[in-house]
Amino acid sequence: MPFAAGTRLGPYEIIAPAGSGGMGEVYRGRDYHGLDTRLDRTVAIKILPSHLSTNPQAKERFEREAKSISAQQHANIIISLTHWIRPGRTGRQGLVHKD
To answer: What is the pLDDT averaged over residues 65-71?
Structure first.
């Protein structure tokens, strides 16, 4: 289920869809950490699609991706800001990357 513009996911706000693929829906978003909107930081938000949220292999692969990205430090590699698992039945996961 796609997220609408303006949807808040913790300190992040969805601005617009950016693309989708086999392992995720990607959105352009805004970072509101500390509720400081003056910095106007743009982020990429990747969400595990709901149809994969109950698939243990897909969830494990998504988590491995989050760990792999967060372990990298290079000017040409994206920076992972956070990874979360939404509690409840769906257990959807998400990644947020610095744009």
So the answer is: 79
